[in-house]
# Entry
Amino acid sequence: MKRAKIVETDDINKNGEDEKHPNFIIPKLCSWMYDLKWATGTGGGMSVKHGDFIYMAPSGVQKEMIKSGEIFKCNSSGEVLEDAAGLKLTECAPLFMNAYLIRNAGAVLHSHSKDAVLASLVFKGKEFRISHQEMLKGIKKGSTNEPHKYIDTLIVPIVENVLYEKDLTRRMKKAIELYPESNAVLVRRHGVYIWGKNWQQAKTQAECYHYLFKLAVKLKQLGIEPDQTPAGEYGIAD
Amino acid sequence: MKRAKIVETDDINKNGEDEKHPNFIIPKLCSWMYDLKWATGTGGGMSVKHGDFIYMAPSGVQKEMIKSGEIFKCNSSGEVLEDAAGLKLTECAPLFMNAYLIRNAGAVLHSHSKDAVLASLVFKGKEFRISHQEMLKGIKKGSTNEPHKYIDTLIVPIVENVLYEKDLTRRMKKAIELYPESNAVLVRRHGVYIWGKNWQQAKTQAECYHYLFKLAVKLKQLGIEPDQTPAGEYGIAD
Amino acid sequence: MKRAKIVETDDINKNGEDEKHPNFIIPKLCSWMYDLKWATGTGGGMSVKHGDFIYMAPSGVQKEMIKSGEIFKCNSSGEVLEDAAGLKLTECAPLFMNAYLIRNAGAVLHSHSKDAVLASLVFKGKEFRISHQEMLKGIKKGSTNEPHKYIDTLIVPIVENVLYEKDLTRRMKKAIELYPESNAVLVRRHGVYIWGKNWQQAKTQAECYHYLFKLAVKLKQLGIEPDQTPAGEYGIAD
Amino acid sequence: MKRAKIVETDDINKNGEDEKHPNFIIPKLCSWMYDLKWATGTGGGMSVKHGDFIYMAPSGVQKEMIKSGEIFKCNSSGEVLEDAAGLKLTECAPLFMNAYLIRNAGAVLHSHSKDAVLASLVFKGKEFRISHQEMLKGIKKGSTNEPHKYIDTLIVPIVENVLYEKDLTRRMKKAIELYPESNAVLVRRHGVYIWGKNWQQAKTQAECYHYLFKLAVKLKQLGIEPDQTPAGEYGIAD
# Structure
């Protein structure tokens, strides 16, 4: 596996284990998140559904070093079936469950990216908004699973942060219900939760969301409002 | 292969396949583009000509994970001869064909780099312009294949973006015809198409264009106009 | 080992050496610091305690190339027991000893990160201060080893730099004594010393501190005071 | 070899070649420069002295792909003794020779870093200047080979760029003679030449110079003059 890159293999390894199982995918995704600085300092989290079970990374560990034997197995209600010796379940668990239960997600990640934090601060209210960017197309609408159009306005709800991560559960649920098109919830001064129908979609949407967070902050610094309909732009047209 | 680095090998691999074939080069170039954040979130695209055939990456997939068996083979008019099972041809295909048909390109890439997007926004009109930069020399003039001089003004035409990528075809064609010296077309709020006589030149020119896009945005932020003839600069001279 | 990533192994290597020993961990951590640009140009330093002994990287060498045979072994007072042929002990030694002797650290690192330098310059006085950031939770309080709360203000003392690194010893000691909650001391226009109860905690805390240094500078540039209680932020709440 | 990292080996390889020879070191250094974006788009250059001979990378090639058989061998006057089939000697050759002949360098590199270009533009005159930075200590004074002190002002002469690289030779010579303490010459809107008594020192000094170029531009953006004696900074002192 290379830097910030996931390699999916079809192989059964020498111990007879399926490397497409979440026990192997989650460590790779955590390492990828670490490389992108979304999960340094033991921050961030990762979860993948597989059949009727939900798998989650442990809490408070160095995310780039997680091993296949350190993943928690939960049932579809989020109750731990198999824990990882000596480790604690991620505090993100009830937040991940929001996306599984309300939005039928197949994978959920939690990033502490500085770009997400800054995006939550250049927009002071309840919504991060950006429009007229090609990368919008990489993000599906929650209600229809159709991609956003270039001219759509992508809206990501922002919840205020709290002292204890589990206390975010109720307000994240509220945000998801208020914004059924969004596959992400920003947490101000904290980070972002992003999901998809499987880990591949969660990952690619996370790449698009983070791209747009970073771009929006840069646009603000250049005096361009990210959600404004373009005006005074006169490129070559038909 | 290391990060953001292409390794060209002369080897015939153990399956008797030529690793210099576009089926192998395109996945490497896509992975390199992913590492540079030009092709995250399934964005971006890559195409290489080889003999009478044109090879293209598939659409809507994770660009860093493309395998040699997933490349489309087209004839010199862009008609698909061999498709990749279960995959769709890139939506960039008609745009790539513009460069092949009008400019006799040997390879074309499409980047979603944030620097290209920002460059298309600090210049509001039909042209990105930069002058008096050494890195201009790494970019050839379309008409003569001679490199730009340090004192030349490099001009990259900018087309307005549209809802569907294929609808860019006509205006990209128009831009190419209006700007015969350019080996690139910026698409505002979207990215850039860049080509060369072969993949090596497409790649090195892409590096120079992206360097200049990033530099131009930084210069604007420092209050320096990228296309202005230097004034008030008094370094050591002869 | 991949970029900016530490791999801890349980293995005894083919020479019968324990790869968890500081002789192996320190080179890996130095290489990780180099990748993060905390230890380029021979700058920076690293030290780990193991049993009754303290191990330190050599001075003035390329930090990414240190080998297991090039680590100094000291007793718990910092006196060299085994030196590394042809090499000099790091000039950070008395500063590392401050953290070992006053704060019972298990590992100490010294970074020349530009973010640390800039953080020491956007705050002009004796303290770097930041509050209401989730990443505070990744940093323990010196007195209790309990994590900071989201609403706490993290304070890092700043000492003025001097001509010779050893002359920092007294003022770093003073800073540690004045700020018993801090696990770090910034040195203005120079860098930062960070420690933890073991190398893992020193590393993860270093990631959090550097994240917060970089974020604080960006916040200042956006006109947001890093240590101000949030006002006018109206995200979704309960 | 990992990203942006040089590994020096003592090994004689399986072909009986000494991997410490410039034929092996130069490709590694070029690849390292590419990773740092100092040598993208075929830009940049590298040269190492070994015994009585001077070895140089070829011109106009992808710097990250140079092979051991593609290095030019010159005598101590810079005359080519062995060329590399099908390749051209770097256009930097006469500029590299300046450092070898006037300053008795053991290795010289040429970087197109954007930070060097920007540093040459935030300082408009003949000199880049920075003071009161710890990283100054990583750079030797040309006259004495003693490191700069923290309170010294590091001065790098800036020459104006020209159309053809070889025409820089005379003014670079002038700059070297006017500034005997400097181990670097900036070329405005182009890049920088940096040397050392061997490749290790050229590399570590290059890391320090580039660190200071980047820092100086950021300081200017924060309203801090890089060469100003600190005022109003009141950290903890003795």
About this structure: Chain C touches chain B at residues 3 (CB under 8 Å).
